[in-house]
Design brief:
By secondary structure, this protein is mostly helical. It has helices spanning 2-13, 17-26, 30-40, 42-56, 63-72. It has a single domain (2-80), classed as Methane Monooxygenase Hydroxylase, Chain G, domain 1 (Up-down Bundle), CATH 1.20.58. Helix 2 packs antiparallel against helix 3 (30-40). Belongs to the SEC16 family.
Amino acid sequence: MQATASEVQSLLVSGRKKEALQCAQEGRLWGPALVLASQLGDQFYVDTMKQMALHQLVAGSPLRPLCLLIAVAGQPAEVFSSGTTADT
């Protein structure tokens, strides 16, 4: 986790925000990933929120559909999906 955080930091210092976001997502650093995504735009935020919900929250958790509802805005069928990985 520390190595991933350092890599995210290095990417940010060199101005590579999208790559830093991808690194944070792959390393499951959801706090930094959500902050970066919010700075990059709505679609990045939606995609990151969806990935976080699918990877971090177990199916059946009341928080999972809430996060997916926030993320998928207008695509409620995905809220009830039992998938464990994001399609992005």
